[in-house]
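User: I'm writing a tutorial on reading structure tokens. Could you give me a worked example: one chain, its sequence, then its tokens, then a sentence or two explaining what the tokens reveal?
Assistant: Sure. Here is the example chain.
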Amino acid sequence: MKRFQLWAIVGLAVALVGVGGWAYWNYELRWQPKTITKHQEEITKILETSGWVSPGKTGPKLYMVSFRTCPDCVRFKAEEFPLLHAANVDTRVIEIARADYNGVSKSTPAERSTVAELWLNRSWPLMERWESVPAEAWTAPGISPADGDMARTAVVEAGRKMVIDLKPLLKANGINFAYPTLIWWTADGKMRGCACEKRETYRFVRRELGVKG
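And here are its predicted structure tokens:
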């Protein structure tokens, strides 16, 4: 009987450890960003030479790869940008017009034109105007068309190539590219990143960029 009780206690202890380990992974570990230690120079060069737009803050840099109708990107901007900007974080948004897939277009002419304009002229107010209008209603007023313009089409393609080039570099660091993908540097100089599709990741981004509250 005593032996049975002992084994029962040991079994319960093991079960509790297992449950605790699973809970830590499920609620904490799985959402944490990754430290980027491989291909740092290549990733940095890709980001810095892309057509990012920013509000011109002077604090830590946060690069965000996005496309206009990405629900997770829209949510992150709406919920987190006000907090990040209040903390002086320079949110550098890289908008992409996704490539066609199996013959199906993943972007509109207005979207391609706007992406080309953002990459060429780096206008944060333009991005804000674009996002203030429902995507299907946006006509890119006053913006030169990208379709039929070799130079602007090349800019759109440069954005698509950027994603292609980033994917294996991030994969080598344990990050599976998705929208939005975020990359930043911590106060102690670590390069960090995540495919931050879920709200559970947001608290880590805020914490590492020095956003309080």
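What the tokens reveal: The longest strand covers residues 61-66. The CA atoms of residues 2 and 105 lie 70 Å apart.
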